[in-house]
Amino acid sequence: MSSLDYTVFLIYFFLVAGYGYWIYQRKKSAEASATDFFLAEGSLTWWAIGASLIASNISAEQFVGMSGSGFAMGLAIASYEWMAAVTLLVVAVFFLPIYLKNKIYTMPQFLSQRYSPLVATIMAVFWLLVYVFVNLTSILYLGALAVSTISGLDFTACSIGLCIFAVVITLGGMKVIGYTDVIQVLVLILGGLATTYLALEMVAQHFGSDGPMAGLALLREKAGDHFHMIFQKGQMMMPDGNGGVEDAYNKLPGLAVIVGAMWIANLNYWGFNQYITQRALGADLPTARSGLLFAAFLKLLMPIIVVLPGIAAYLLYREGQFQAEMTHNGALSPDKAYPVLLNLLPAGLKGLSFAALTAAIVASLAGKANSISTIFTLDLYKKYFNKDASEATQVRTGRIVIIIAMVIGAIVAPALANFG
Q: What's the chain's Rg over C-alpha atoms?
């Protein structure tokens, strides 16, 4: 990256950190309540809730992984995003009223009221282990890997830097996370669209045309097989990343994935996941519903940002470009698609897209750390270790847990390199 790129990135960094500190100072009370810290009770607007949902959801696995899937199998992978938009409508209409009517603050609390305290405790412990050792560490590993690959900085330095950035935001509580996520999403969308624009412009210029719309038309014409949404067996063979090919049907088995499995995954993720639902649990029903509807709208845009660049990279690769850059250990690696495109951006825009990727990673880390803190403090610490804990003690405990979780994540994340 050039000095201009680093300048753009630093502007983003100080904008987010400064805005977060301003929100914290403006909204802090003499003694912050636990519900205010963990849920930002009554503080988040509908647009902050919607933006925060998307900022927490989108991370390196979308930018790198979904673009790679766009390269390998095409637009069909967008079904994850578009089904999520439909699921958010279901959650807004049917799930939220139940949560808010019963003053549910955490998902284990819901299970306690619906079934028993034992079920709630088992799930609280299970979710904590998954959030810390699977979600937090994988977000940190993939994020640090992506940032390191693009910037050339050391992996460990990137990992520690991302942790510190996320902690600065998270210690301010959910209201700081919610409002800084608005900037994160704005940067994420602008940076993502810049990469999409470049990719479509490159396609257009390669075939003697000009403009992104011409590039999109050429994609439909020249790579029509990558615009199928429902696969049949043997219809689409895709690279497996190891030098061979595999049937895309095995990844997305036709209609079955849309009418069956994806509903289970989506309802679990968007309807019963503390990491996601927490943003809406501190608001009134109209505000929370509006926030989820806004998130659903943003979800519809995500394939434009993360899938189209992958399809464009596929067509250009097929036309003889990026032959060396798209290989890893001698085999075609679809996950290289997005980093390859990023490195072709002009000075300034590369910094913006780099900031977008960082924004997605940091927002996801902050949201995950806050959920870990909430579940531990409200469902375990207050219930079993200190039943009479004051509001201030709960907030202090929550902040300590955030730091501990991030330290564990930073220690464990490098070990993920040993897995496939």
A: 22
Residue 38 contacts by C-beta under 8 Å, 6 or more apart in sequence? Answer: 105, 173, 174, 278, 282, 370, 373, 374, 377, 378, 398
Q: Element (H or E) spanning 311, and its range?
A: helix 308-318
What is the pTM (predicted TM-score) of this model? Answer: 0.87
Please name the helix (run of DSSP H) or strand (run of DSSP E) that holds residue 38, with its range, or none. Answer: helix 34-39
Residues contacting residue 74 through CB under 8 Å, at least 6 positions apart? 223, 225, 226, 227, 228, 236, 307, 311, 314
Q: Residue 115, SS3?
A: coil
* Two structure tokens written together for 145: 């890997």
CA atoms within 13 A on the CB side of 240: 9
- Per-residue pLDDT band for 409 (boundaries 50, 70, 90) equals very high
The partner residues of 331 in beta bridges, in order of sequence, read 328
Is there a contact between 318 and 88 (Cβ–Cβ < 8 Å)? Answer: no
Give the pLDDT confidence of 127-171 residue by residue, as tens digits: 999 999 998 998 899 888 888 877 788 888 999 999 998 888 888
Report the chain's terminal Cα–Cα distance, integer Å: 29
The two tokens of residue 384 are 């079993």
* Token pair 């990727």 in the structure block, residue: 357
- Contacts of 192 by beta carbon, 8 Å cutoff, 6+ apart: 63, 304, 305, 306, 353, 356
pLDDT tens digits, one per residue of 217-227: 999 999 988 99
